[in-house]
């Protein structure tokens, strides 16, 4: 349960610390005193979205701290353990909002995301807003309430998991089917292109080497002419480089006996002579082995022409044609796999569909069984809340469709008959605002008995109710608090009188600011506050006596 609420610099609250207890606690105060700020603070700490507007003017940040006792909430302790949080019997939740709008959330001083915070705190607190009766008109809310009452959460999750599997497979199948015609056209094109490329045996081609060979053959006449001329210069001519170098080496070698310093020169010339002889040999060998057949050049030019034409056709470089061929082979394999995948998905969706409707039928049976119990309980509660002729009905009708739906295959509708002899009709068509508030409260109280949430907060859910009915509402909330903590914001003295604890919210005006404060009322203060709530500008002895009487009945 919630042990403590601390607020710092949130809206009109500068600082506030509330210690809370087991049982029923009411919050009362004049309109605009700040009761809504307390609920806002709770909502922020539980994971609601925050904005910079929540920060008190001229402050750097707002902060809300909650302390929970988890002794009676083993599911929360298990969650902390599974998510590697410190497992203390007391759990601390902190939410900060900076003046720039950024916020942070913490569980046991460890930062968490809002989604994680919401997942955890959903096990600890449940808030019923003053407009809960409006959401009651929505079909999804009616279905949710029935499933909560019937404790269908685990089975419903199985149904929804099956639906998600079916939906994922069905979406993929539809996408592949839409692309089937386009894929067939692409497959024909890819097959034609691939056949064209495979006919060339591209794996055996080296475009760079082929280009080099072509350049060489196209310039072979020039190569042979220049090569032969240079061979003459180097060796064959009378005054060739080789002959002159040989003569120079001979002359200098003779001088070496007179000038030993020329020895190193002679060594270098000797090495040069050897290298020139090797070059001459390589050049002569190269020239003697060149083939000047025009057919070879023509064949290579034809091959290059085909490769270049294909490269222009496919908008790739010639050397990338083999890579293109491999890519086309992969594309064709994937298109072939796509056809296989369509067949696989057709079987898969049929299987999921079969399992889904089997589970959905079982869920329908459970819902129809629970609907009978729920309508009996709520009809009885409606009579206690001042609708003696009211009858509540829960209609569960399986939909005639072969398409799976999220949350099962049923239409769940809440209906009432407010007067004897009138057929039941949907809530939205027959219930007035006051009746809808009472029906909503009846549903909340009835379904709450089957919940494990340790703290329940009711924000003016008794609006539109008064007199003796308000007293019964207070009694029901009091009964609800026997095994949990109930916090209730109310304007009705009949409800406030049924509480175990009474918190009073008031505004205090100072020279430069307005702040909201909350204080726990003692016995005498409760009498005064109850008398104020009973009405009248002046609190008389009779009003005080009435207040004492109401509190004495508790």
Q: Whole-number radius of gyration? A: 46 Å
Query: What is the CATH class designation of the domain at 1-124 and 457-465 and 480-520?
Result: Alpha Beta
Largest sheet: 6 strands, antiparallel
- How do the strands of the widest beta sheet line up side by side? 2-1-4-5-6-7
Full CATH superfamily name of the domain at 1-124 and 457-465 and 480-520:
P-loop containing nucleotide triphosphate hydrolases
Strand content: 15-25%
> Terminal Cα separation, in Å?
23 Å
CATH names the topology of the domain at 1-124 and 457-465 and 480-520 as Rossmann fold
Structure report:
The structure is a single chain. The protein is of the alpha/beta class and 554 residues long. Among the domains are: 1-124 and 457-465 and 480-520, Rossmann fold, CATH 3.40.50; 184-334, no CATH class; 521-554, no CATH class. Helix content is 55%, strand content 17%. It has 19 helices and 15 strands. It has helices at residues 35-45, 74-82, 114-121, 132-135, 139-149, 153-178, 180-198, 207-218, 220-236, 241-255, 263-288, 294-314, 321-384, 427-430, 433-448, 467-480, 493-496, 523-534, 541-552, and strands spanning 2-10, 13-19, 23-28, 61-69, 90-98, 103-107, 110-112, 125-128, 391-398, 410-417, 425-426, 455-459, 485-489, 501-509, 514-520. The protein has a six-stranded antiparallel β-sheet with strand order 2-1-4-5-6-7. A hairpin with a 2-residue loop joins strand 1 (2-10) and strand 2 (13-19). Helix 6 packs antiparallel against helix 13.
């Amino acid at each position: 349960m919630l042990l403590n609420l601390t607020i710092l610099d949130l809206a009109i609250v500068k600082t506030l610390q509330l210690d809370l207890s087991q049982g029923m606690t009411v919050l009362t105060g004049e309109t605009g005193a700040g009761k809504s700020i307390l609920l806002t603070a709770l909502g922020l700490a539980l994971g609601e979205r925050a904005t910079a507007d929540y920060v008190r003017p001229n402050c750097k940040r707002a902060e809300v701290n909650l302390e929970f006792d988890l002794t009676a909430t083993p599911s929360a302790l298990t969650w902390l353990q599974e998510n590697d949080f410190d497992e203390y019997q007391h759990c601390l939740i902190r939410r900060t909002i900076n003046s720039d709008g950024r916020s942070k959330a913490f569980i046991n001083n460890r930062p968490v995301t809002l989604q994680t915070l919401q997942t955890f705190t959903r096990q600890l607190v449940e808030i019923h807003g003053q407009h809960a009766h409006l959401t009651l008109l929505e079909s999804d809310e009616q279905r949710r309430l029935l499933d909560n009452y019937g404790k269908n959460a685990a089975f419903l999750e199985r149904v929804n998991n099956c639906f998600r599997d079916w939906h994922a497979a069905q979406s993929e199948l539809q996408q592949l089917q839409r692309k089937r015609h386009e894929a067939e056209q692409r497959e024909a094109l890819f097959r034609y292109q691939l056949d064209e490329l495979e006919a060339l045996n591209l794996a055996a081609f080296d475009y760079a080497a082929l280009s080099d060979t072509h350049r060489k053959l196209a310039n072979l006449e020039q190569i042979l002419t220049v090569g032969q001329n240079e061979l003459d210069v180097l060796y064959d001519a009378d005054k060739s480089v080789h002959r002159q170098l040989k003569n120079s080496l001979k002359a200098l070698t003779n001088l070496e006996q007179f000038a030993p310093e020329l020895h190193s020169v002679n060594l270098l010339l000797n090495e040069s002579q050897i290298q020139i002889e090797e070059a001459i040999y390589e050049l002569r060998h190269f020239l003697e082995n060149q083939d000047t057949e025009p057919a070879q050049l023509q064949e290579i030019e034809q091959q290059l022409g085909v490769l270049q034409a294909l490269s222009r056709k496919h908008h790739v470089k010639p050397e990338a044609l083999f890579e293109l061929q491999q890519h086309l082979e992969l594309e064709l394999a994937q298109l072939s796999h796509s056809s296989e995948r369509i067949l696989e998905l057709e079987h898969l969706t049929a299987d999921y569909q079969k399992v889904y409707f089997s589970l959905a039928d079982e869920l329908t049976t459970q819902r129809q069984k629970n609907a009978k119990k729920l309508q009996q309980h709520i009809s009885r509660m409606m009579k206690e809340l001042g609708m003696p002729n009211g009858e509540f009905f829960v209609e569960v009708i399986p939909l005639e469709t072969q398409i799976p739906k999220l949350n099962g295959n049923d239409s769940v509708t809440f209906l009432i008959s407010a007067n004897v002899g009138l057929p039941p009709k949907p809530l939205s068509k027959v219930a007035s605002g006051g009746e809808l508030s009472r029906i909503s409260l009846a549903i909340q109280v009835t379904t709450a008995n089957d919940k494990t949430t340790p703290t329940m907060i009711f924000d003016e859910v008794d609006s539109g109710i008064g007199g003796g009915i308000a007293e019964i509402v207070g009694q029901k909330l009091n009964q609800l608090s026997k095994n949990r903590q109930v916090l209730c914001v109310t304007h009705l003295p009949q409800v406030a009188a049924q509480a175990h604890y009474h918190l009073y919210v008031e505004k205090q005006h100072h020279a430069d600011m307005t702040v909201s404060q909350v204080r726990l009322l003692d016995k005498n203060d409760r009498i005064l506050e109850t008398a104020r709530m009973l009405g009248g500008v002046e609190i008389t002895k009779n009003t005080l006596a009435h207040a004492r009487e109401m509190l004495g009945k508790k």
